[in-house]
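Q: Here's a chain of 76 amino acids. Please give me its 3D structure as tokens.
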Amino acid sequence: MALEQTILYIIFGTLLAIVYSLRILVLLERRIARMDENLIRITDKIIMEERKIQAALSKKTSKRKPSKSKSRKKKK
């Protein structure tokens, strides 16, 4: 009887360890998912800022007056 009870305790302990490990894995997966969402949010913000900078640069270059080239006459 004592051997059977010991074996049952070992099986029960193993099952509890498996359940606990699955719980930890689920928590880690949720944490990683939140990290992914934060990275996506950060990259979206960076892309928006880069577009603003590109728009500002394109406006700046389009506002420049074309440089007048002086036409020189060839001397004979």
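Q: Can you summarize the key feature?
A: Residues 59 and 65 are 12 Å apart (CA to CA).
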